[in-house]
Write a sequence for this structure.
């Protein structure tokens, strides 16, 4: 009875992963040998991991990547692409974000600019930075419209 009351309160506080983990610990005898601190730590860890995962998924969705499955690890460094592996590694550390710099990816059609941009954005998301993937023509059109209707500052904040 007390267990169900506790689980109900956890759900009410929107701690559903903790409630699920607690229920699992109460029904699984493998946890009986652990101390209270260890069991509680496992419950808190499961809630924390779930929230971090949900936050990362939200960041990825809100970035609106052209290639949401791109990652720095999957970038191909063939000679004709002329990519600097050290530069990509440095950019994937996201130090440029802390320095308040931007990244602009330039190149000929079909060389993989979209993939590299999406991969660098995903690296930033994995460091829990917000990203907005936008192509230059779309950005310029959006800024021109917002400038015309007086919502320029609002558009800049949104981007």
């Amino acid at each position: 009875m007390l267990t169900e009351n506790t689980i109900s309160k956890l759900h009410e506080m929107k701690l559903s992963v903790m409630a699920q983990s607690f229920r699992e610990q109460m029904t699984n005898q493998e946890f009986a040998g652990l101390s209270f601190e260890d069991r509680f730590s496992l419950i808190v860890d499961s809630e924390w991991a779930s929230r971090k995962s949900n936050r990362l998924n939200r960041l990825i969705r809100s970035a609106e990547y052209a290639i949401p499955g791109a990652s720095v690890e999957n970038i191909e460094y063939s000679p004709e692409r002329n990519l600097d592996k050290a530069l990509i590694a440095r950019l994937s550390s996201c130090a440029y974000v802390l320095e308040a710099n931007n990244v602009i990816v330039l190149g000929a059609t079909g060389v993989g600019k979209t993939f590299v941009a999406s991969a660098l954005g995903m690296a930033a998301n994995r460091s829990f930075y917000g990203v907005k993937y936008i192509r230059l023509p779309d950005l310029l059109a959006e800024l021109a419209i917002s400038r015309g209707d007086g919502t320029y500052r609002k558009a800049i904040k949104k981007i």
